[in-house]
Design brief:
Blueprint lengths: L2 E2 H8 L2 E3 L5 E2 L1 E2 L9 E4 L16 E5 L9 E4 L2 H12 L15 E2 L4 E2 L4 E2 L4 E2 L4 E2 L4 E2 L4 E2 L4 E2 L4 E2 L4 E2 L4 E2 L4 E2 L4 E4 L4 E4 L2 E4 L5 E4 L4 E2 L4 E3 L5 E4 L4 E2 L4 E2 L4 E2 L4 E2 L4 E2 L4 E2 L4 E2 L4 E2 L4 E2 L4 E2 L4 E2 L8 E3 L4 E2 H12 L1 H24 L1
Parallel strand pairs: 4-5, 5-6, 6-7, 8-11, 9-12, 10-13, 11-14, 12-15, 13-16, 14-17, 15-18, 16-19, 17-20, 18-23, 19-24, 20-25, 23-26, 24-27, 25-28, 26-29, 27-30, 28-31, 29-32, 30-33, 31-34, 32-35, 33-36, 34-37, 36-38
Antiparallel strand pairs: 1-3, 2-7, 21-22, 38-39
């Protein structure tokens, strides 16, 4: 596909600085781009690459005024670039269509218009699936579950009984939703299972990565709010409530009965203790060990997690421990020498 830079700017509602007539024939990352490609730069720390890239043009933020190459200034370079990719490289993914003859369907199932069910998927009794939903092969959907319109369930996803999934939800392969919460009562050294009779409710426009586990509630609901995005390999325990438009990055773990607000970012490998609250807009940095509630619009990091500025100071002190140890050793030796001199006098 070929488009002029001016045509691309119109597509993404951007402002051209430089020659709007140059022809763009491809898209690429800023380091890989070559002549004829358009690329983007969103992170200010990579501004040095603006003059080094082989791309013919660059999508930038509004704060960039001019470079040696033509640019398109936008509010959100990353989102604008995503639109361009869709324009230049239309998706070649072919989703299943219709109900495959190897699918096993239970009783009293409600299927909307244009629902697709792939090979060897099992749909239990009393399941409801909305219009234009797509269920790939090898999935299991337990009884009395509901899946909203235009949802996309990739292969080998397990959705246990009573789970409610909203509209336009995407769930990637290997994910298990509605598994039993981890609840046991220990009596005389023996662990006795506590029944987990609640459900999981997932809002609209949620995306859940591969190999995620979301446990059902002991009572009531485990809830994932509208628009929240969950990366691969995340564990969400029973009775967790996550607000709208939050981001949970790979390998994070959230213990039972924790409440996460709206617009929260939980970075990779962060771990949250149970029965705490994370306020709206909070950021939990990578590998943060969060043992206490976090106020809204606060950044925390480290273990145990503390305000990020404080955590950086603590880490700086830790980095200086070898020098501090050497200094203390020298001072200790000098004190011993002084004590010896005083004793001799």
């Amino acid at each position: 596909m070929r488009k002029t830079l001016k045509e691309i700017a119109q597509l993404i509602e951007g402002e051209v600085v430089g020659d709007g007539g140059i022809v763009i024939t491809g898209v690429a990352g800023i380091k890989e781009a070559k002549n004829g490609d358009i690329t983007f730069l969103a992170n200010p720390k990579y501004f040095s690459l603006l003059d080094k890239t082989g791309a013919s043009a660059i999508i930038t933020s509004r704060e960039v005024e001019k470079t040696v190459k033509p640019i398109i200034r936008t509010e959100n370079p990353s989102l604008a670039f995503a639109k361009i990719i869709d324009s230049f490289t239309p998706s070649e993914v072919t989703h299943p269509k219709g109900i495959h003859n190897t699918a096993i369907l239970g009783k009293n199932i409600s299927l909307g218009k244009n629902v697709a069910v792939g090979p060897y998927t099992v749909i239990d009794d009393n399941v409801s699936i909305g219009d234009n939903a797509i269920i790939y092969s090898g999935c299991f959907i337990g009884h009395h579950s509901k899946i909203g319109p235009k949802s996309l369930i990739y292969p080998n996803v397990s959705i246990r009984e009573g789970v409610i999934i909203g509209s336009r939800v995407i769930i990637h392969s290997g994910t298990v939703i509605g598994s039993d919460g981890f609840g046991f009562a220990t009596i005389k050294g023996m662990h006795h299972k506590i029944p987990q009779i609640g459900i999981v409710e997932i809002g609209d426009d949620v995306e859940i990565g591969a190999n995620v586990t979301i446990d059902r509630a002991r009572f009531d609901k485990t809830i994932i709010g509208n628009g929240t995005k969950i990366d691969n390999l995340v564990q969400i325990a029973h009775n967790v409530i996550i607000g709208e438009n939050s981001i949970i990055v790979a390998q994070a773990g959230i213990s039972g009965s924790t409440t996460v607000g709206c617009g929260v970012t939980i970075a990779g490998q962060a771990g949250l203790a149970g029965h705490i609250s994370i306020g709206d807009g909070a950021v939990l940095a990578a590998q943060a060990g969060v043992t206490k509630s976090v106020p809204a619009n606060t950044i925390v990091s480290g273990y145990p997690a503390r305000p990020h500025d404080q955590a950086k100071r603590v880490n700086a002190c830790i980095q200086n421990l070898p020098k501090l140890y050497e200094a203390v050793t020298r001072l200790k030796k000098k004190i011993e020498e002084l004590e010896l001199k005083l004793k001799n006098k």
